Amino acid sequence: MKIALFLSRWGNGGAERQFSLLAQGLARRGHKVVALSVLPGGLHWDALKKSPNIARHALYPASTATQVTLPTLLGGIFRLRRFLRRENFEILYSALVTANFMGGWAHAPSPATTLVWGIRNSVVEGQWEKHFLYLLSKPLRQRPELVICNSYAGKAFASNKGLLSSQPKIVPNGIDTETFHPDPIQRETLRGQWGLAKTDFVITSIARLTPMKDHPTLLRAVAIARQSNPQIRLVCAGEGSLSYRKKLQRMTHALDLQDIVHWLPPTPEPEKLHQISDLFCSTSFRGEGLSNSLAEAMACGIPVISTRTGDHQTLLEGVGHLVSPSDPIGLAEAIKKSIQEHGCGHRPKGRERILSHYSMEAMITRTEKHLEELRKENAGVE
After folding, report:
1. Which CATH architecture has domain 2-174+359-379?
2. What is the pTM of this model?
3. CA atoms lying within 13 Å on the CB side of residue 288
4. CA torsion angle for 312, 14, 376, 105 (degrees, to 10)?
């Protein structure tokens, strides 16, 4: 198959990571894959440069912007339309509202190309422009011949937004279990480099610094738990606006946590943060479908705590702790319980759950199967 995987920008988010894994997996299986973007740049865009079997194409190749503006979006639709006419892709698989909207409008004059929409969130996050794009996308729901959701929460969201004209397929996120795996030797080395004592209990959070991810609840919970467990350390890695980062740092000082909290930028090697960690926390109060970082921590054999958002209850059932959103007291109790389990040598079974239900190869195989069936159906092949 000749497939274009289309995003507004291949940055540092979960959707971008999944599309990067998918692009590499489909290319390994002999498909011709193009990573298509409105804007160039971003963590995964740069990483794909090292993949010789994957072509990259940006609609605005010289742009240095990191966000799609209204003029860029409208002009990008015409650029995308010309690109599709010229390249004759069999599949255009877009994800997230900006790319889905552009694909819906650009697809009409390209009958040779089948449009597939990807739904990878369960709430509208962002300014009024995003809400407006969802509203404008609703009349386009007949144009994709297939919708793929990465979670049942995403399916419910798409249905509520009127984005579905037929039943979507569910393809959960896939985790690279060769990269994300327990590594006691690396753990000891990295903790030594960080200057961590063996008694230090390190909690990590890998998430964008946005209100939806609810870092304030995590900070309050750590402050509560640390009253009886002074060995707690917290590492938060993620990108966000300077103003919001400063707000979180002020809160860190107000809670007297400034000496034990480390704020890091997005990391191209999150597996290293998981290796130094004793516990991973996902504290979003809404909007999650299925968190990559949470599943990757599980693949590394790290105990995890998550709020009951998205499909996390299914992901963690029997292998992790679930708490209510925006509940610092409940989260603090779960942290203290995890510390007790850590002291007793409790071994979490999260990696087994990932291997059996959320492997990278399973995600690639399921996606490939759905795309192949769609291609054969449109070609009239039995």
Report:
1. 3-Layer(aba) Sandwich (3.40)
2. 0.87
3. 28
4. 120
